[in-house]
């Protein structure tokens, strides 16, 4: 069965500094990988996905993520953090070959951007 | 921008009572899902629904749970006899048919269910 690990419960970063939110996965085969963000009292909003092709994918709000197959990682990054980026970030994986549509989520990482 | 909407935002119910959580998916989407997140734990898959039938369900989705698309716009999750451990945030999601499994799911804001 697939699994996703987000090793940090919380990440604190100063405004204007680069940020990284880590995600590793465990799955057989080639996964589809996703990042979602949850702002307070809001649903999960899609940020970006990796399906195939270029390992660096760009998404909404200036975020990007790099797929690293050898390290089974899909870390979320942004060059310059904004206070408004403070939210809960979820990494998720889907295994397409199984014919399954379900997403397996990590536990989430709370990002706090300090002014 | 189209969005998935869920009602109510918070539901408090007594143990043993039936509860129905409601969702209005994005209008041209064909795949529908329910997920839940117990406080402090991971978001977990419950069920997927396509073409008026369940296409996949997890072990969490036992006989106490059912889903329905009663009128072509709403998508509901019913819990027949709630238990304390059903207390969680329940997320509805929908997905367009698009390029097979490549399309992403869009989630609602969630319904917080509290069983007392």
| Count of DSSP strands of chain B | 11
Q: Quick check: average pLDDT of chain B?
A: 91
Helical content class of chain A: under 10%
The percent range for helix content of chain B is under 10%
Quick tags:
heterodimer, A: 115 residues, mainly beta, six-stranded mixed β-sheet, four-stranded antiparallel β-sheet, 12 strands, 0% helix, globular, B: 116 residues, seven-stranded mixed β-sheet
Descriptive overview:
- The complex is a heterodimer of chains A (115) and B (116).
- Chain A is mainly beta.
- Chain A contains no helices and twelve strands.
- In chain A, the strands form three sheets. In chain A, strands 2, 5, 6, 10, 11 and 12 form a six-stranded mixed sheet that branches.
- Chain A is globular and about 45 Å long.
- Chain B is mostly beta strands and 116 residues long.
- Helices cover 0% and strands 49% of the residues of chain B.
- Chain B contains no helices and eleven strands.
- In chain B, strands 2, 4, 5, 6, 9, 10 and 11 form a seven-stranded mixed sheet that branches. Chain B has a four-stranded antiparallel sheet with strand order 1-3-8-7, with no helix packed on it.
- The model of chain B has no long low-confidence stretch (mean pLDDT 91).
- Chains A and B meet through strand 5, strand 6, strand 10 and strand 11 of A and strand 4, strand 5, strand 9 and strand 10 of B.
